[in-house]
Input
Amino acid sequence: MKSLKNTLNLSIGFIALIAIALGACNQSQKKTQDDLQQSVIASHDSLMNQMSTLMEKKMQLNYLVAHLDSLKAKNPSLDTADLRVQLNDAANHLAKADEDMMAWMHEFSPEYDGKSEDEVITYLKGEQEKLNNLENAFKQAIVHSDSLVRSLNK
Output
């Protein structure tokens, strides 16, 4: 009888240990999920703060396209046909970055009903990667635009 009681106590202790370990694993996954969710939100917010910069730069480039004759008057050797292409290209990159952000926001789903924690974590990692790519596109478009404008102010 004592042996059965010891075995039963060991079994209950082992089951409790497994339950605690599984609970810790679930808490770890939940923390990972929460951390990823916060990272995605922070990246989104950062990009949203840059949206007005994209539009300001695009307006600046469009203004320059509309006033190429003034630039030509200041610098008669300026190739305005080539400059028009460069300005429009830079404006298109800014617009594409904006459109890509809008598309991401439209496609993003914060609803995880019916998904396992692993599926949610995989989804959020993928979304973070998309936002990282968008951030790079924003930076490249802004740097290119700034560089082009600076070259005209020399």
Remarks:
- Residues 13-22 have pLDDT under 50 and may be disordered.
- The radius of gyration is 28 Å.
- The first helix runs from residue 2 to 66.
- The chain has four helices and no strands.
